[in-house]
Design goal:
- It is globular, with a radius of gyration of 15 Å.
- α4 runs parallel beside α5.
- The protein has one domain: Phosphotransferase system, sorbose subfamily IIB component (Fructose Permease), CATH 3.40.35.
- It has helices at about 15-25, 40-50, 65-70, 85-90, 120-130, and strands spanning about 1-10, 30, 55-60, 75-80, 100-105, 110, 120, 135-140.
- The chain has 5 helices and 8 strands.
- The chain starts with a strand and ends in a 15-residue tail after the last strand.
- It is α/β, with parallel strands linked by helices and about 150 residues long.
- The longest helix has 12 residues, at about 120-130.
- The strands form 2 sheets. It has a 6-stranded parallel beta sheet, with helices on both faces. It has a two-stranded antiparallel ribbon with strand order 6-7.
Length: about 150
């Protein structure tokens, strides 16, 4: 069962490890990215950072559905770097109905959408496509903080 799909440019880090996994009872983390699985240094860092009690898969986005289907009893958190990756993920996992935007890095051409989410035009366009698919986007850094009410209209 998918407990959380999270957009976070940092992927696996303290907030994810200590807050979200414990709050949601996650026992399987999937880092879904088309570049990170081919980067041995990044993969090693992610494997060191993961909670001891959780499984970790670092795979291309296209392989996520087969993992979720194969291990149906696991409780998943799926991490992607940005809105475009989230959009691609929803094409392979159509059951996704909501996505947490936890952190998208500030860039020269980006605008703020909450305390830690900065979207450029391409990321905003991908976010609009997610919303058009009926997917709820919520901005929240950690489970103990309030959900930020964000208007992605501009």
């Amino acid at each position: 069962m998918i407990k959380l799909v999270r957009v976070d440019h940092r992927l696996l880090h303290g907030q994810v490890i200590f807050s979200w996994t414990k709050q949601l009872g996650v026992n399987h983390i999937i880092v879904a990215d088309n570049k990170v699985p081919n980067d041995p240094m990044n993969k090693m860092a992610l494997s060191i950072a993961k909670p001891a009690e959780a499984k970790l898969d670092v795979v291309p986005i296209g392989e996520v559905a087969s993992i979720v289907e194969k291990e149906k009893d696991d409780l998943y958190m799926i991490l992607v770097k940005g809105p475009q990756e989230a959009l691609e993920l929803t094409d392979v996992l159509e059951e996704i109905r909501e996505i947490n935007f936890g952190g998208v890095a500030k860039k020269a051409d980006s605008k703020p959408y909450g305390k830690a989410v900065y979207l450029n035009e391409n990321e905003l366009e991908a976010t609009h496509k997610l919303i058009d698919k009926g997917i709820e986007i919520f901005v929240q850094q950690v489970p103990s903080s309030a959900i930020e009410h964000v208007n992605f209209g501009n």
